Amino acid sequence: MRNLSCIVFLLIGSLSIFAQSPHGNSLKIDCSSCHESTNWRIIPKNVKFNHNSETSFKLTGQHVTVNCISCHKSLIFSEAKTQCISCHLDVHQNSVGVNCVRCHKTNSWIVNNIIRIHQNSRFPLMGAHLNVDCQSCHSEYLNLYFPIISVSCFSCHKQQYYATTSPNHVQANFSTNCQTCHGLTDFTWGNASFDHSFFPLVGGHNIQNCFACHAPGSNFKGLTTDCYPCHKQNYITAKNPDHIAAKFPTTCQDCHNTLTFTQAVFNHNSTGFPLTGAHASISCQSCHISGYTNTPTNCYSCHASDYANTTNPNHSAQGFSHDCSQCHTTNDWGGGSFDHTAVGFPLTGMHANLQCAQCHTSGFTNTSMACVTCHLKDYSAAISPVNHVAAGLPQTCQDCHSIAAQFTTTSFTHSSTGFALTGAHTTVSCESCHKGSVMNTPVDCYSCHANDYANTTDPNHVQQGFPHDCTQCHTTTSWGDANFNHSGTGFPLTGAHTTVACQSCHNSNYTNISPLCYSCHQQDYAGTTNPAHQSAGFPTDCTPCHTTSGWTPSTFNHAQYFPLSGNHDISTCSTCHTTASNFGVFSCTATCHSQANTDPHHTDVSGYVYSPTSCYGCHPTGQGD
Question: Is residue 308 helix, strand or coil?
């Protein structure tokens, strides 16, 4: 502090000359915080400056007692560096960086927690590494020089690798990645263990001597995991059964496990051919007569003799399929039972009692399932209810016959043809409609009822051009009881239309008749004089005034065009409709209100514009006011 005081006094002169603080512009505290007011002397106990709170560098440990000038080389205090290396010599020669606080504290340079520090490095100390001397790995330890060294085990344990003979690492070409067998937490080099999980050493494979499989001097890499290379001799000498003679595959694991080689068990299910029924008790050689590979799995390959010698029924003579499983099971060859449903032809009704050969006359394959194949004679001889051949009946027997009854019993549903038999159609004979053949019979009424159509005179269908679609008026109950629904034409018959004869409107034919009133009431339109429709140019649409109840009386709803009220309630149309040829024209001023143009009441209204019907805007009731 005495030295600092001298520096302060030396700078007093310069302070007066330059009129600024010798500590630089960054120090903003009052001078009296450190100096006496009578002189520049500094009394440490009176200094009010707090280095910890007023700077970013807290004074701890030995920094509390060190002379300020040790760090502050000049009076401009802000020039002092905060890095350790700015004040302290790097004895480690930049081998561990310049961040001293990673290992050292401000109270002492001695490092007493090197183990914990090492745990945060790229090589944490574990196992035997906790107890070894630092110099064992850091050769420049005594010189405090710690250059980066390899973290590979081999870099330090090269001598152990070369010196190890059980097993000989060099001859076996072991990997130099020591932790493959040696653990980082081990406290001795000899306590090695290899993770053999890629080929678990269990059962008989739990061998302590590696060279039992890995020959001495061999490479420990690339040894196959197949059983045969190690157990070749076991395979060759095996006689129960003889593996070579039986041509067993060399995949030992198919029958053997790792517990013992002699207790072999083969899971036949794994072949896709499980042994069930009688197959479970026969010797293997019964089927595997030529070895254990590529043995056929079809029944016939073993049961050809059974097939040839079976006479009930005779399989060979009747051309039975070689697929024995269709009738036989593995329980017993003699108890054959065929599920006929599986072929899509269940045996029901009369078919259930037939002998197989009755249908399968040429073998049991490709037998037709069409009825006529077996029943052609029945079809040809059938004459009741109709001669099948002469009538051209289809040979789809199932349309009329069922399997449950004899061929003579028929049950035909006419609805299945799309033409249901109703009314009188249910009692007529088939030949009445099916003349000569039941095929392609027309379903329209006229094809059978042409004579009825031609002979009907009330009304005369031919003269009046009735359509040939009889269903518009007739039903299947009776031809004579006809009834036409006129509403279906879009022109329902109401009022007087319900009592007039059809010919009144249909005077030429029954098709393309106009639904307009005028087409029938032209004479009524022309003969009406009150008012005269024709001379007045009335529209030919009769419906605005007339109804179907009668031509007279008629009514016109004048309110929808021009309400007739007050003085306008006039019974004579021509009073306002002065143009006889067109009742759509009328005028207020032309006849009734001609004086309105000269009425002083109107002339007082400036700019009033007249139109033929403008009076109604102010005189809706027809009054003058």
Answer: helix
